[in-house]
Every structure is written in structure tokens, then in C-alpha cells.
Amino acid sequence: MEPISSRWSNVSSKDNNNKEVTFSDLGSKRIRHGSAGADSEFLSMSQKEIKDEDARLIYINDPDRTNEAFDFTGNSIKTAKYSVFTFLPRNLFEQFHRVAYVYFLVIAVLNQLPQLAVFGRGASIMPLAFVLLVSAIKDAYEDFRRHRSDRVENNRLALVFEDNDFREKQWKYIRVGEVIKVVSNQTLPCDMVLLATSDPTGVVYVQTTNLDGESNLKTRYAKQETLQKATDLETFDGFIKCEKPNRNIYGFQANMEIDGRRLSLGPSNIILRGCELKNTEWALGVVVYAGSETKAMLNNSGAPSKRSRLETRMNLEIILLSLFLIALCTTAAATAAVWLRTHRDDLDTILFYRRKDYSVRPEGKNHNYYGWGWEIFFTFFMAVIVYQIMIPISLYISMELVRIGQAYFMTRDDLMYDESSNSSFQCRALNINEDLGQIKYLFSDKTGTLTDNKMEFQCACIGGVDYSDREPPESEQAGYSVEVDGIILKPKMRVRVDPVLLQLTRNGSKATEEAKRANEFFLSLAACNTIVPIVTNTSDPNVKLVDYQGESPDEQALVYAAAAYGFLLIERTSGHIVINVRGEMQRFDVLGLHEFDSDRKRMSVILGCPDMSVKLFVKGADSSMFGVMDEVSYGDVIEATKKQLHAYSSDGLRTLVVGMRKLNDSEFEQWRSSFEAASTALIGRAGLLRKVAGNIETKLRIVGATAIEDKLQRGVPEAIESLRIAGIKVWVLTGDKQETAISIGFSSRLLTRNMRQIVINSNSLDSCRRSLEEANASVASDDDESVALIIDGTSLIYVLDNDLEDVLFQLACKSSAVLCCRVAPFQKAGIVALVKNRTSDMTLAIGDGANDVSMIQMADVGVGISGQEGRQAVMASDFAMGQFRFLVPLLLVHGHWNYQRMGYMILYNFYRNAVFVLILFWYVLFTCYTLTTAITEWSSVLYSVVYTSFPTIVIGILDKNLGRRILLRHPQLYGVGQRAEGYSTTLFWYMMFDTVWQSAVIFFIPLFAYWGSTIDTSSLGDLWTIAAVVVVNLHLAMDVIRWNWIAHAAIWGSIVAACICVIVIDVIPTLPGYWAIFQVAKTWMFWFCLLAIVVTSLLPRFAIKFLVEYYRPSDVRIAREVEKLGTFRESQTMGTEMNQIQDPPRR
């Protein structure tokens, strides 16, 4: 290892010229990490004992010995699903998970039996084969892309220590136990425990964008004991005992033994596959997890699979159609049985039937006749084969294509493009597009979802005194700067300062007691954090900007605030920090660090100060901090601070409390021994570390409190108002204080001044029950009053998983808005489940952080915000966007369109197939109840696939019953989906009655017109085929709202294509009906019948449609008329005619 000899270490990053400020001559000490990450509920083994059966043993730099005993997974990855040999069987197995496909396979198999053969054997298989082929091609292409990506990834090169030197090796050949060298800006090929870095203190900086989407740099550390030994890897002797592979990217538990010493390893000592090395020249590590066992690959699962409500509802109609199909088949079999019994004496000679075959011998032989009972049995199953398209096989593939088209236009919508993050809308789950049009409950996170999650320091309370005047003199607008070694350093982000407080910090810590407290306060802010300072170049070579990188936006804001007041954090290593205090460089040794966790709700750092004293600095939420303060000595200051915190929270500001105390030698030694024992424990390490932190974080002296503003995103108030008018109940779930949450509720228009607030703050089950029952009674007594329910996380503890869930749900249903504050992540999911399990209404959850993942996955529709807290929410979501306000066009516009299109398309597919089946059924009644058909088998096959399918797909993608402008202007139009007006059982039965009428007209008009003529059945069948295609396409044309050239081409082109196909089929001599279309089409009767069929079949539908829309117009019909007239003068009257949903109706 080469020491860093220069005072400044400049390391250029890949995208910009960044430098890390280091002062290597100041020395360092080892940093200690305490209860980091202990708050995660899914830390798996990281909080538990590493038992022998749950552990793996890795011998450092000895992969042969490591893999000899355990045979660990190699580093080759495989995200592809298929191989050349497994593609066909596995793909077919997956496709036949759809019951409808199994149904059509059984039909095709039945048709292969001679006794049941109705169609040609090839023709009967074609529809199913076509659908399977299209899906297989799509799956094969997607898997080919995965294979290509895997090949590129596996063939990347890394430096592996072999034969006493680092040699390049392909990633796929890396093994567990090998030592890897990674250089700056390289991606890590596997999960490895750090052994050494280019920094003599063992610190390394990584960017985890590829892992969790967070762009801020994170610090990881090599153990001091391994730094020197790593210089001679040949003699490095040791092993690591770690937990088995798991998905938790925030937890890791292991022990390392070298030279007879056992060292504890945690999340800060491991760097994961997919991370990039930044601002560090190189790092050495030993591979502990490789390939599919790395945490990145274990987390490489897509969005959860969900089924749309419309598709689930469609199953009921498919069951009804199946029953209808069985009824038709039973009717055909029963009537055939009666006919056979009635004519049993004439079966040998009756025309067109002739049971006897006299060509064999004079007395004849029964020809394909198996007796009365078997004939009925065969007739039933032959009817099933003939009428099989009653269940539309093409519907499934049509739905997939329509959803792909809808997703394409959603992702291309400029109204959902976020310029600030340069991110477009993402559709991660294609199968629930239409659910966006039926949302009734919206559950939203606050921080980063309703707000920007870009924190700005606003106020400070020091010693109980408020400093909130942020109007600085003009001279201070330039911001704070300091000169170090001839280089002027400035914080990258400016913070407006309080002039009085600024003057106090300038006076120095020894001027007055007030000035001393102010300096102590900002020293706490600069020191008590995990921020990494990075220096970036500017256009002026003598001026550089200090950029503070950290996982918490709150910490960044506090450190920038400290810098603005003259406490500029310059350097952070594994053992010390350097702070420039008003031009004086001061170094503090980091003796211990307990990171923030949600159990303690605070973090602490133990510093060795320049005056040789040891001080403990703690910051955290007020709810956890006031309990560890020395109230006896500082009671007055605590009370004054509490009052200021209440004022800050009422203004919607986020608050933190800062405390400290000096540690004497005995206290520090006791803490150090307890900490070392806890950090090396094999059982319950995280709990022991929390206990150590809790023991030292006591009897604190209150230093002050901070107030940070997290501003609302642009358009949030207008978005929430539009959603509420649309009839969507908005619930905001936040971890903030109640006062902060209420303030944000008013500013976001979730709460209004005319709402009566019902606040539930209970500390016991009985008081919670009593409060909820009293609130329910008060709301029931005044039905006209608008109510806002506000409940805290403590009360929810007693509500969730208890009999109080029903009481809370009843109260929430009567409320216009619900605000839950101080809620934990698991409670968010519990609240969604509470509603989802008690109503059939659709739920949507939206959030931006890892704490929102459970809520997003619990809801029917999950939306992730690409925000400041990484991409965990996005990766778990069904849809992703950049801003909360994009929900308005997503739901009110695209959701409305998708629901209307998909609902109509499903009903239309049922209708067009049922028309064709009933034509075949009517024919059976006039052919001695046999299953012969006049329509050729190829026309029967092509009807659903070619003749009528393409227009359905085009209209399902492009048609719009209303324009974007009017949908956004009148949000109550969204209620169409909530009330299921686009798809319902009523519409299904209306469609079926219309189907019976149209099929009867199509069949009987030609039948009676040609009754007694010499026309052959093939000619009549061609007329029925063309008439059916024309009628169903004109039926579709009657319902098209937005005509364009694509719609014209699809509808009229399908009619032309059907005619061409009929002609082609009839000119093939080997097929039945040779030249039939030419014989019938040259007569005037053919064209008269075609015209009569079109007019007679569609006239009742046209008349009913006219009467309904004229005398009982729907909201959509009224809006369409207004839109068509091109004026909105009727908007006032329109508002009264439509279903007004200013406040959602109560249950």
C-alpha cells in the first residue's frame, strides 16, 4: 500500500472532477460502528445468532480450501429463464397455466378423434397454435435479451490475486475466498469484505445507485487489523464466518479470525455487487458471496404479479358463457336424440343421413353409427367443438396487445415527464392498466411524496431561545467561505442565516454564555452525523465547493447550516473528523458511533476533542430525546424548547433535538468494554449494541433544537383537491409529528378550515376504544358535517390486528380525509390491509422510500416516486413517476381511458364470438340437428383471428370517449370507473340479448330469402360469413368516438380482408364450396340480403342508444356534448347535472 503523501488527495470521478479533502498528516484512529441498521424489520440473520448450520466459512485468499468443503456458487449469473433445450417444454408449461388454453387444447384433441371430427385436424389446432406461437416468440425475444445481457456481465474483467500478483479474470470465473482488487469508478463483481483501501485509515466510498438507486456516497471501512496484513497477501492467514446469503442489503453479520483474534464484521465492512467505487483509488476485499448468492441478485425480482380487477370480474362472465355453451350443446344433443328416436325406422334410407352403407354388400352395413346413446354423447362433444369460440381465445392476446399499446402512450405522455429528475413515467406491470380507472382509496406517504424531500434549515432553538429571523444583511448573501492552503472552500449549498445567531458564533465560544451555547450547538450539528465531505472544482481554480454526501437529506441540511455559521466540516475518515471553526482547523477523534435506528430514534457520536476531553453528542426525535435529558438540572430550558418545538411543528417544520454531555474516564472505559463485548457477540448482537447505546445516552444536557422545512412539491394541493373531487379518499400516512402533519395537511388542501378534526391519541386499548366509539357517535349525529380523522401511531398499535379495526374503518368511511402520523412502516401496510380487506373498492398506495415498500405491495395498485430516498419504492411498484401531481393525469385521464377501453373491448369480444356461435346453432335446427356447418372450417378459424380481431385492438388502444382537457377540468367524470359503469353484469346481459337478435337476423333473413331456391349451402355460408363480419364491425364503428385514419383502416380494412379471404378459400378446388361466392354474389338477392341484415340487426341498438342518451344521458354523454360544441358555457349547469362528489359519500 502506498501512503498518501500529499496534503490534498485529488481523485477524479467518472462524470465530474471531484476531490476529497484529506489531511493525512493529522493521523487517525479507528472508528466504531454501533447499532447501525438495527431498525430494519427484515434484517434476517443480521440480528440473530450465527449457528453452525446457518453459517458459511471462507478462508481468506484460499479459494480451493474454501470451496472444497462447501462448494459455493460460482460468480456466473443467469437471469434468463430458458435454454435451447428447455424453452419449448417450459414455455408451454407456463402458458398452459391459463385455464382457457387448456380448454382449447382439450377441444383440439377431441377434434382429432374420428367420431368427433367436425373441422379438419389442422384447422382445429390453428387458433391455439397461433396464440401459443405469438406468446412464445415474445418470450423467446425477451429471454434472448436476457441471455445477451448475462453474457456481457459474465465476461467483464476484474483483478484477482493469483500467483502472488493481481491478474485479470472474467467475472464468471471468480470464486468465493479469492481476493479482488477494485479501482476507482469500477463496479464490484461480487459481495466482498474489505481488507484494505488506498486510504491509510481504511475508509472507502461507494455509490449504490445500481443497488438501491441512491446516488449519495456511502462510507465503508476495512478493519485496522487487516490494513497492514493486506500488504502481504501471500502470508495472510485467516477465515471469515458469516451468515448464509440473504436479501437484506442493509444488514450483514460475520466474524473474522486472524492471528488468533476474533473481529466482528457488520454492514459497514462489506461492499456489494453492483456498487461503484468512488473517490478511492483502490480497495481490496475477499469474496464472501458470488453470483446468484449476492445480495443484488437475490433482490433481482421484478414488480409483484397482480391481476386486474376487470380481468378477475371477467371470469364470472366466462363462467356464464360456459354455462350458455353447455346449454347450447345440451340443446343440440337433446334435439338430436328426439330426432333420432322419432326417425329410428327411417335412418337406413332417409336422405342426407343414410345409416346404411350399401356399397359394401346388398343388405348394407352400418356406416359410422354407434347406437342411439353413443350418437347423443358424440353429438354433445361435437357441439362443444363447433361452438368452442364462445370462449374467445383471441381475447387474451388482444388484452395483452392493448395493454402494451396503452403503456406506450402512458410512458410518452409529456404531462408525466419530470424535468427536474429527467425521468419519464414507467409502466412496470402491464396487466393492471385498467385498474387505474377504478381507484377509490389513495394512501400516500408525506416526505418525498407530497414534499420534495429537499430539506432547508429554517430555525434554531438554542438554550430555549428561538433564532428564526432568516433575513440576513446583503453582505451575508455571499455565504461563508474559508481559505485552506491557499484554496478557498465554500459550501456547495447556501443557507440563509439569522444575523443575531451569526454574530454570536463570530464572538467565539468564550465571549458570553450565550455565544458558548451557540458554538456548542453548531459543533454538534457538524460532528454528529455520517456525512462525507467531497470537494468539487469550479471555473476558478482557487475556489472549490464542499459537497456534503449522505444518506439522510436532514443531515445534509444540518451540516450545510453549520457550515453557513462557520463550522465547516472538511474531512471525515474512519477515525477522525476535521472541522474548520471560523478559520481554525480542529480535529476530533471519533471514538464511537451509534447510528440512527427506528427503535431509539436517535444517533450519537463520542468524540475526543482538542482539549483532551471526551464528549458525547446525541441528536434525534423529540419523543426519544426528552426522555434521556437531565430534567432536574435543565428543566427550564427543556420546557422553553418544547414550546418552540410546538410552534415549529405547527408551521409544518421537521424538528430534531440536540443534546450532549462530557464523559469521564470511568464512563468511557465502561462504555468501551461494553461496546467491544456487544460488537463481537454471536447472539443478539444488534440488541446488545442498542442496549449499550441506551446506557450511554442518558442524563444529557439539552443543547438546542432544529427546524427544517420540507417544501411541498409543485402542484400537490391542486392534485389532492382534484382527486378528492373525483371521489377518491386520500389518506396521508407519515412518520412526522402530529402538528407537522396537520400543518402539511392544510397546506396540501387535504384538510380545510370547515372540517371538524377528530384526533385520536391514546396510550391504552381501553382509551383507544372509548375515543373511537365516541367519535363514531358524534359523526353519526351530524351527517352534514365534514370530518377529518387524525390518528397517531401509538393508537394504531391498539387498533391494528384487533377488534377495533372495524370501528376505525367505520369512522374513516364517514371522514372526508384521514391523516395518520407517527406511523411505522409495518403500520402503513396494516392500514392498507385494514381497508382492502373490508371493501371491494380499489386501493392505491404511493411512496418514495424503502419504508413505503410494504404499503405499495399491499395495495391493489402501487406507485413509486423516483425521489431522494433511492429506488426501493420504484423497484417494488407497479408504476413509477417523478412527482405526486402526475397522479392526476395518470388516474383521471389514462386510468379513465384504459378502463373504458378495456371494459368495452371485453364485452365486444364476447359479443362478436357469440354472434358467430349462434349463427352455427340456428343452422343446426334446420339440418336434422346434426353438427354440419354451411360456413367453411377455415372461415370459422379465421373469424376470431383475422376477420374481427384487429379493429378491437386498435380501438382498445386509440379510442377516447372524452378528451384530456375535459377530464382534467371535471374530475367527477372519474366516477364512471368507480361505479363500474364501463363493465358490469347488466351490460353483459344487455349485450347478450342484442347478440341473440343480431345472430337471428343474420341467419334467418338469407334463410327465408332463399327458401325453396336451389342455392347450395356453401354459398349461403359465405353470405352468413360476410354478413356477420360486416355487422360486428359496423357495431364497433357505431361506438367509436375518436375517428382517425388508423381506426378507418382497421374497421373497413377488416371487412375487405374478410371478403378477400372468402374469395381465396372458394377458389381453391380442394376445399368445399369451390367458386360458391362467385355464384351467389352475382345475384341481386345477395346484396339485398346484406343490406337488409345490416339495417335490421343494428336498428334496435341504434334506437335504444338514441333514447337512452337523449332521455337519460350519462355524465360521459353530457361531457361529450359539451366538448363537441367546443364551449364550456354550460360548465355551471353541467356541474349540477353530473354526479358531484365534493366529499365522498358515507357508507
Question: Can you describe what's shown?
Answer:
- The chain is of the alpha+beta class and 1147 residues long.
- The chain has 37 helices and 38 strands.
- It is elongated and about 120 Å long.
- Its main location: membrane.
- It catalyses: ATP + H2O + phospholipidSide 1 = ADP + phosphate + phospholipidSide 2.
- One of its GO terms (molecular function) is ATP binding.
How are the SSEs placed, and which strands pair?
Blueprint: E1 18-19, E2 55-59, H1 63-70, H2 87-95, H3 99-112, H4 121-154, E3 157-162, E4 165-170, E5 179-183, E6 191-197, E7 203-208, H5 209-212, E8 214-221, H6 224-229, E9 238-243, E10 254-258, E11 261-265, E12 270-271, E13 276-278, E14 282-289, H7 295-298, H8 309-342, E15 356-357, E16 365-366, H9 372-386, H10 394-411, E17 426-427, E18 439-445, E19 451-462, E20 465-467, E21 482-484, E22 487-491, H11 499-506, H12 513-527, E23 532-537, E24 543-549, H13 553-564, E25 567-572, E26 576-581, E27 584-597, E28 602-608, E29 614-620, H14 622-625, H15 631-650, E30 654-663, H16 665-679, H17 685-696, E31 701-712, H18 716-725, E32 729-733, H19 738-747, E33 756-760, H20 765-780, E34 787-792, H21 793-799, H22 804-813, E35 817-821, H23 825-836, E36 842-847, H24 853-858, E37 861-865, H25 872-875, E38 879-881, H26 887-924, H27 937-947, H28 949-958, H29 964-969, H30 975-978, H31 985-1009, H32 1017-1039, H33 1045-1066, H34 1076-1081, H35 1084-1111, H36 1115-1125, H37 1131-1137
Parallel strand pairs: 18-32, 18-36, 22-24, 32-35, 33-34, 34-35, 36-37, 37-38
Antiparallel strand pairs: 1-23, 2-9, 3-4, 3-5, 5-14, 6-12, 6-14, 7-8, 7-13, 9-10, 10-11, 15-16, 17-38, 19-20, 19-31, 21-22, 23-24, 25-26, 26-27, 27-28, 28-29, 29-30, 30-31
Helix pairs in contact: 2-4, 3-4, 3-9, 4-27, 8-9, 8-26, 10-26, 10-28, 11-12, 12-13, 15-19, 16-17, 20-22, 26-28, 26-31, 26-32, 27-33, 28-33, 31-32, 31-35, 32-33, 32-35
InterPro entries: ATPase_P-typ_cyto_dom_N (IPR023299), ATPase_P-typ_P_site (IPR018303), ATPase_P-typ_TM_dom_sf (IPR023298), ATPase_P-typ_transduc_dom_A_sf (IPR008250), HAD-like_sf (IPR036412), HAD_sf (IPR023214), P-type_ATPase_IV (IPR006539), P-type_ATPase_N (IPR032631)
Domain P-type ATPase N-terminal: 58-124
Membrane topology: Multi-pass membrane protein
